[in-house]
Amino acid sequence: MIEKRDSNIENVVLVGVITKEQNEEKSKEYLDELEFLTYTAGGEVVKRFVQKLEYPNPKTFIGSGKLDEVRSFIQDKEIKTVIFDDELNPAQLRNIEKLLDCKVLDRTNLILDIFAQRAETSYARTQVELAQCQYLLPRLTRMWTHLERQKGGIGLRGPGETEIETDRRIIRDKISLLKKRLKKIDSQMSIQRKNRGKMVRVALIGYTNVGKSTLMNVISKSEVFAENKLFATLDTTVRKVVIRNIPFLLTDTVGFIRKLPTQLVESFKSTLDEVREADLLLHVVDISHSNFEDHIASVNNIISEITPQGEDSSKPTIMVFNKIDAFKHESIEEDDLTTERSKEHYTLEDWKKSWYAKMENKCVFISALKKDNLEDFKKIVFEEVKKIHITRFPYNDFLYQEYEENV
Ligand SMILES: Nc1nc2c(ncn2[C@@H]2O[C@H](COP(=O)(O)OP(=O)(O)OP(=O)(O)O)[C@@H](O)[C@H]2O)c(=O)[nH]1
Ligand SMILES: [Mg+2]
């Protein structure tokens, strides 16, 4: 199922909506993110189409007039791919495909595609493949009948619905096979996690592209792949880190994104187990991003979503505001008396004040890239790890003083 696309740039058109739930500004932010996702997947956005609607059209997502507009544009420019900024239901996908006569993707499909391109280990590949099958199953239409040929179902079934039924069965078989495979790897991984012993475990979490891997690299002097694309990291990496005299395990995790496809939430459970089993979370935030507060909310939502009911999802957390080197804010001219001061005008100092108060000082402002303020970062992490370490190993806390004197 996993297809690695070649590196030829694909021209793409994006389609989004402005509704009661998402105003013009939000819609633009979402499309900006969709454009970044498209770029990550190897596409180039030629044009965006946006329509104002009460709610998305149940049959075709946008209205038929707008869809006509899209069709004549893509025919004119010979564009073969249109991406919608929401998950399209199977009927919508089918209707739109028929009307536009080109490849139609939605946000979920695009994210799955990126994950497929980037999955390196057999674990990640199995997870992605499972997610793709789960996405595909309800969307199987006649165009998927080639699957039957793969299986060589000789003269067993006639054309039409029966073929689709066969394809569905093939996909279902595959899903159960992949699930079995994952279960096996999951149990191996949980044994591995147990073998790590009682050492304090710290996990870097956060929205995609905020700098988690970069921070991991500077702190642990390791070389985790980091780049300016979304979802650079798909596998968790664990490193032993020592700050002063306390060793602990630091885990780099897969980045979160708004509306993480449900299929992926499910199949990345084991990655997220790392987060659940961590003693301390370092929630990394890209403060130079204009929507960083939304990102924080998305991450917190996903964390509470993956936490089984009855389990407490709150655990010690330090907010790590990264990319302070790239932080910018709007300013108001002194003679401008009409513009109201809002969050766009907050300086770094304003943000610090507000977050220190909110987090009771459990936050730090750094630049992982420029290595700014890493000392403060290490200090605050050390203090928190030490608290956990002391409760876990109550009899050897004498170790600290000795070493601290040498720092
Ligand atoms: N300006 C600036 N850029 C940074 C900083 N830290 C990281 N970056 C850049 O941000 C981009 C993303 O960094 P990564 O470390 O890959 O981010 P990540 O959070 O691991 O991303 P995913 O693995 O995709 O979730 C890279 O281009 C980094 O060079 C920083 O402090 N300042
Ligand atoms: Mg990363």
Quick structural overview:
With 407 residues, the protein is α/β, with parallel strands linked by helices. The protein contains 14 helices and ten strands.
Helices and strands in order, then pairings?
Blueprint: E1 10-18, H1 24-41, E2 43-52, H2 64-77, E3 81-84, H3 90-100, E4 103-106, H4 107-118, H5 122-136, H6 146-151, H7 161-195, E5 201-206, H8 212-220, E6 237-243, E7 246-252, H9 262-267, H10 269-277, E8 280-286, H11 292-306, E9 317-322, H12 348-358, E10 363-365, H13 374-392, H14 399-404
Parallel strand pairs: 1-2, 1-3, 3-4, 5-7, 5-8, 8-9, 9-10
Antiparallel strand pairs: 6-7
Helix pairs in contact: 1-4, 4-5, 5-7
Bound molecules: guanosine-5'-triphosphate and magnesium ion.
Helix content: 40-55%
Query: How large is the share of residues in beta strands?
Result: 15-25%
Q: How many structural domains does the protein architecture include?
A: 3
Number of strands: 10
Order of helices and strands: EHEHEHEHHHHEHEEHHEHEHEHH
pLDDT averaged residue by residue: 83
> What are the low-pLDDT stretches, counting only 5+ consecutive residues below 50?
142-159, 400-407
Provide the structure class: alpha/beta
| Biggest sheet: strand arrangement | 6-7-5-8-9-10
The number of helical runs is: 14
CATH superfamily of the largest domain: P-loop containing nucleotide triphosphate hydrolases
